[in-house]
Amino acid sequence: MTAQRDGDAGGGAAVELQGVTVGFVSRRVLTGVTLRVPRGGRLGIIGPAAGGKSVLLKVIAGLLRPDAGAVRVLGHDLAAAREREVAAVRRRVGMLFQNYALFDFLSVGDNVAFPLVHGGAPPEGIEARVAARLRGVGLAGSERKLPSELSGGMKKRVGIARATVARPELALYDEPTAGLDPVTTSKIYDLLRADQAETGGTCVVVSSDVAAVAGFADTIAMLHDGRVRWVGPAAALFDADDPLVRSFARGEEREGAAVLARAVAIEPPGAGVWS
Amino acid sequence: MALVPRRSLTSLGARTLDLVDAVTDLVRVAAGTVSGAVFTYWRGTRPKGEIARQMHAIGNRSLLFVMVTLGFVGMVMVYQTCLLTTQVVDGRGQVGAQFARLLVLDVGPSLTAMMLATRVGAGIAAEIGSMKVTEQIDALRMSAVTPVDYLIVPRFFACVLMTVVLSIFGMAASWAAGGLTGYYSFQINPRTFFDLSMVAPAHVVLGMTKAVAYGAAIPIVAGWCGLRARGSSEGVGAATTAAVIGSSFAVIVLDFIISAIGLIFWGAGL
Amino acid sequence: MILQRTLTTLGARSMAVARDAGGVFVLLLEVLRSLVPPSMDGRELMRNLYKMGYRSVPIVVLTALFVGALMVVQLAAFVKQFGATALVGWGTGYAVFREVGPILIGLMFSGRVGANNTAELATMTVTDQIDGLQALAIDPIRYLVVPRVLAMIVCLVALTVIGDLVALIGAMAMSQVVLDIHPLTLWYSLVDNLSTADFLHGVYKSMVFGAAIALSSCYFGLTVKGGAVGVGRAVNAAVVGAAVSICFLDFLMTYLTA
Ligand SMILES: Nc1ncnc2c1ncn2[C@@H]1O[C@H](COP(=O)(O)OP(=O)(O)OP(=O)(O)O)[C@@H](O)[C@H]1O
Ligand SMILES: [Mg+2]
């Protein structure tokens, strides 16, 4: 353990990104992203669709290596580390994927137990921890169900349970409330808040529900066209100096709509098979 | 420079890079599978009964398919050979023994593997590919689980074993169907037909070596294609297609290589 | 207990096979009916010919080269034993033209083109594009299936002919290397002993195989259910169906035309 934490002394940031740039085949998705999340902090990331939010989260999780820039997570330099070291860091990070990514060949219980089983937790305690975690997300007793039998909101909550069951030092949530009603949304943020109060960990939330995430996070960053357009305290978001940020946050027409219009001009579906 | 449009140059460059990337990936998956099978798979927490489940998925569900197709091929081979041998002089007595030799040495394992390349290769790529596009592979990695160890290695063991077993079943089906054809269409006495005198130990060794090599190649190639899937359903479809063609081609190339090595090794003894 | 379960599974599977075989047959009838006033989207046909034929040439050429060389390697032990150098061309040609060529190239074609086509149609189906066509009063059989079936038949025949020739080149090269047989010796042995009928036998087969691959791949593509997983499963079923049909039809044609 001490060997793993040796780098932590520097500043106490959980996540430190410095000029992170990521590109796929022909296009650049992230350009020079610089962000810092202190230990115990709560960062919310907002921005129009296809702005690179999910990609940024994957970079922080060590699932994607940036083409340029430095990524320090929990004291380890992920951009330069060998895969084995990155994997060791990932064990201390929990992630909820945008489309849940539940293992469809495993039951709900086995899904939630997965990080424990493969994280070297003592086998005796696993069952109880899984049951407690499922109770925490309001799905007590659904261990035996298969993911395909669940609704979207239930899958999301199973995903949250799986992401947090191993008490990660850093939790990453990609759209924890997309497609959920306001009541469930506030329940989920309550849950995230309670989790964080309990573990003292760090949280990064990507969400397009600007109001809800601004109520949860202490800092908000807006990604636009793969760049950080704005970072500041959540309270200042709705009165930001940048008109584009302000109108996006308030959901106003004009510039906000223009931003969105540019973002949805993505390639048509199915272009791949026709070639 | 002026004669070649710049776009085609950059696209050529991009395609070369893609190819290099793909080949690097293949080498990585192959090395990871082999080292996983020898070392790491036995170290970590592995799913209980996974190899048995894969053996069932690969073996049981392909048995009928392999036996039916190999049966038909056996009938055709005997039929064609008998047609030929009865044209000039009556060589029907030799057909069975030669057929058995060819079946053990090449046709049995190779054709079984061609069939498995479509059936099993497509299945593995579809499974792993849909896990890839639904981010389940990334979710595995979040728990520090290596996708190659977790997904490909069990299929590798199961497929090697099942290719050998199914080859034997396929040969049996082919041999029996060939014998029936010989008897009903060309009046070859089954006792003359079912003659193993031409099958030497070297043939068995070579044939089984082929089966093992094919069984190893199919999950590696198919898993590689699955892990490279991108996008959504069309990405899975493309990965599946690539897996079928890639593993079939691997079977043909391996057949050639191993046959050539056998020829160098044993020469006229084969 | 076990017997009952086995019988149930067997029964269920035979039902499924019968349903699929019937579905393919119905599709064949629908395609034939659509051909009666021969109206056809020519652009769609050309696009498919290019995509299915032209772009499959590399893989077919590679496969055929190896197959031709492989045949010689298989024959080599025999030839060395009996010194029957004059028979190499004849043996290779007979096997490649009549059986090995059409079957292996058919299987590769099914993997490359049939599977791709299933994936394409299946993706269209799961994303409701087929319903979209019907809403525009466009007949999916006439618009999507007929051009593909025709294109696949034409392409497979052409590719088989190319493959046959390339396999001969592979065989010539290989027999020069391992058996020290001059390519011309092999060529004369081939033309002296084989007739055009042997060659045409394979061409007819490839025609039938092309139709079988096309119908199987279109059928499974259009009847897919269930998202990304469904697409993979449809591709799987299509290539398996094509492989079984190839082996069965090969037997039937050998038997009938002998
Ligand atoms: N593996 C990949 N290969 C190629 N392109 C990718 C890949 N992953 C993401 N992209 C591209 O990167 C861009 C940003 O994607 P990302 O998923 O990060 O967007 P997002 O901000 O999360 O959008 P949304 O709000 O819709 O989830 C998209 O245009 C996407 O097509
Ligand atoms: Mg996203």
Structure characterization notes:
The complex is a heterotrimer of chains A (275), B (270) and C (258). Chain A is of the alpha/beta class and 275 residues long. Chain A has ten helices and ten strands. Chain A has helices at residues 2-5, 53-60, 83-90, 108-117, 123-136, 152-164, 182-199, 210-216, 243-250, 255-263; strands at 13-24, 27-38, 42-46, 68-73, 76-77, 93-96, 170-174, 202-206, 219-224, 227-233. Chain B has helices at residues 6-38, 50-87, 92-133, 136-142, 147-186, 190-193, 201-227, 233-266. In chain B, helix 1 (6-38) crosses helix 5 (147-186), helix 3 (92-133) packs antiparallel against helix 5 (147-186) and helix 3 packs antiparallel against helix 8. The longest helix of chain B has 42 residues, at 92-133. Chain B is elongated and about 65 Å long. Chain B is mainly alpha-helical. Chain C is built from nine helices and no strands. Chain C is globular, with a radius of gyration of 21 Å. The longest helix of chain C is centred in the middle third of the chain and has 40 residues, at 140-179. Chain C has one domain (2-257). In chain C, helix 3 runs parallel beside helix 6 and helix 4 (88-126) crosses helix 7 (183-193). Classes of the chains: A alpha/beta (275), B mainly alpha (270), C mainly alpha (258). Chains in contact: A-B, A-C, B-C. Magnesium ion (MG) binds next to helix 2 of chain A.
Distance between the termini of chain A: 51 Å
* Global mean pLDDT of chain C: 87
**How many E strands of chain A?**
10
Spatial gap, N to C terminus of chain C: 46 Å
Spell out the helices and strands of chain C N to C: HHHHHHHHH
Helix content of chain C: over 70%
Low-pLDDT segments, ≥5 res of chain A: 1-10, 264-275
Q: Could you say which structural class the secondary elements and strand pairing of chain A correspond to?
A: alpha/beta
What compounds are bound to the protein?
adenosine-5'-triphosphate, magnesium ion
Low-pLDDT parts of chain C are none
